[in-house]
Amino acid sequence: MLQGIDRRENDFTNDVKDMPYEEFPEWCKLQYEYANGRLLPAGYVPQSIYWLYIDGEPVGVGKIRWKLTETSREAGGNIGYAISRQYRGHGYGTILLKSLIDIAKSGNCPELLATVKKYNYASKRVMEKCSGELVRETDERWYYRLG
């Protein structure tokens, strides 16, 4: 599923694109450490990764950064998702984002901000379906407050 998402697609970073299968378990362990605030690179905040499965198939991945930084306020926000190409257009982005919002709210995430590149009208619609409030825009991005 992650191979169906480009390395840097619509502001979503997919670190495992083209990663050898043998390296994936170690990457998962590192993500667990990051989620718990350990081994974070300088300037990073705790981040959790979630997977959306439909009928036993992985179709999407989402991330929650548990704090907003000045950098993430400008590019990326602190909540994001990606759906594998072959599953797009079926409402899975909306399902995943609504789930991420619920998880973030239950985890006491103080603020949720998502950014959408201005050419990505599908994600713009997902933000609107998830009651996203457009709070700002630049030449490149729309900024949505969620939750």
TrEMBL record:
Record's keyword annotation contains Magnesium: no
Keywords of the record: Transferase
Domain of life: Bacteria
GO molecular function annotations of the record: acyltransferase activity, transferring groups other than amino-acyl groups
Every N-acetyltransferase domain range: 14-147
Matches recorded under Gene3D superfamilies: 3.40.630.30
InterPro entries in the cross-refs: Acyl_CoA_acyltransferase, GNAT_dom
Keyword Transferase: yes
Membrane-traversing stretches: none
One protein family per Pfam: Acetyltransf_1
Matches recorded under PANTHER family: ACETYLTRANSFERASE
Protein name: GNAT family N-acetyltransferase
UniProt source species: Blautia obeum
